[in-house]
Every structure is written in C-alpha cells, then in structure tokens.
Amino acid sequence: DADVTQTPRNRITKTGKRIMLECSQTKGHDRMYWYRQDPGLGLRLIYYSFDVKDINKGEISDGYSVSRQAQAKFSLSLESAIPNQTALYFCATSDPRTGRARETQYFGPGTRLLVL
Amino acid sequence: QKEVEQDPGPLSVPEGAIVSLNCTYSNSAFQYFMWYRQYSRKGPELLMYTYSSGNKEDGRFTAQVDKSSKYISLFIRDSQPSDSATYLCAMSDTGRRALTFGSGTRLQVQP
C-alpha cells in the first residue's frame, strides 16, 4: 500500500461548488503539506502543518482552507471553486528526524482537479 | 521575480549524452538544496540532496552548489530513456519551515 494516499485522484466540478481533497499517510510523519502544480509554475505551497495544532499559510492560500483532523490526515478545501483553481494538487509529508535528508518530502500521487 | 528560476525545457537528448540541469536563486539564506524527479502522472521523489556549497555524486548523478553565484546544477552521465522525467530543484533556509521549488525542467532521452 502507498504511504501517502490522496482521494479523489480525479475530480471535475463546477464554478462555485465546495470541494474537499483528502490526504492520508501511514508514514507516521508529523509534517504535512498541500501544493498545487501548474505548467510552467512548478509546485507552489498552499498550506502546511507541522503537527495537529499547527497550521500555516503558504505562498498561495487565498481561496483554500485546510483541516488537520489527525496526525495522519490533512484535508484541503476549496470553499467556492473557480476555473483558475484547475490544477494538479499534491499532498506531501516529512519528518526531519528521518529520511535521506531532513528536508525530504514524500509526495502522494496527486489529484487532478478540473473546475468548469 | 521568482525566488527560484529554472529553465522549463523541454530538453531532448540522445541516449548516452551528458545532461546538465540548472537553477538560480535569489535568497542568500538558502542552505539546503535538493533535486526531485517526477515521472508523468506521479508525485515527485527526492533524487539528490546537498547541504551548503560543494558537490555530491550518486551513481550517474552529480549535484553541484555554488552559493557565491546562487547557482545549482544536476548532471546526469550516460543518460538513459528511463531518465525521461521532469526534474525540479528545491531549496530551504536554516529555518526549514518549507521548501521552495523551481518550475521544473522536462527531460526527454531519446533511445
């Protein structure tokens, strides 16, 4: 089984709809991240959380919210989806105490979101 | 201006070629430098990691960091079709709150 899972893998929604993307991990990591990836823009950080009580805005948090329900679960919500939120969304985890490098991030398979 | 600049490519080379991928950055506080590889329809995976300036070699891959020029490179020797992917540079400062990624370079190695 994959260590970092994302659901759904693909989603089509309409402008104005609320949508939630979910991330679960079995790696036991405290740190979790949400990124979006757009062609030519690379990975941009939306929100990150270093533990259940720690939530931080990233570079592009406007229009998004998050919930850290447990160490293993980190959800991203689009309150009112708009077409320019069409992108590939990745969840990632890290643990500075383990891994090849302290900053290693482990990514999920991504959710492809289309907002019509 | 972006904190991290990376040529998006695409870069197409024949099998066996030496590939050079580069990033420049503007934040002098960056101390940790990484290269991630992303295959199509997959999440990125860590390929190389370097702390501060210097070189690191791992098999066919060599990562270089020149902090005086704010320039990092990834070299791939004897490139293989299986190296075809998007390569993203990433870096962080000593606070290590989060990574800043480049936009990625798409590499195609032709058999």
Description:
The complex is a heterodimer of chains A (116) and B (111). Chain A contains no helices and eleven strands. Chain A is an all-beta fold. The model of chain A has no long low-confidence stretch (mean pLDDT 92). By secondary structure, chain B is an all-beta fold. In chain B, 0% of the residues lie in helices and 58% in strands. In chain B, strands 2, 4, 5, 9, 10 and 11 form a six-stranded mixed beta sheet that branches. In chain B, strands 1-3-8-7-6 form a five-stranded antiparallel beta sheet, with no helix packed on it. The relative contact order of chain B is 0.35. The chains are: A mainly beta (116), B mainly beta (111).
How many distinct beta strands of chain A? 11
User: Number of DSSP strands of chain B?
Assistant: 11
**What structural class do the secondary elements of chain A suggest?**
mainly beta
- Helix and strand sequence of chain B: EEEEEEEEEEE
Kindly report how far apart the N and C termini of chain A lie: 33 Å
Q: Profile the largest sheet of chain B.
A: 6 strands, mixed
H-E order of chain A? EEEEEEEEEEE
Largest sheet of chain A: 7 strands, mixed
Given as residue ranges, the uncertain stretches of chain A (5+ residues, pLDDT < 50) are none
Shape of chain A: globular
Computed Rg of chain A: 14 Å
Count up the helices of chain B: 0
Approximate helicity band of chain B: under 10%
What pair of chains forms the biggest interface?
A-B, 26 and 23 residues
Number of helices of chain A: 0
- State the helicity of chain A in percent bands: under 10%
Shape label of chain B: globular
- What percentage of the residues of chain A does DSSP assign to strands (E)? over 45%
What is the residue-mean pLDDT of chain B, rounded to a whole number? 92
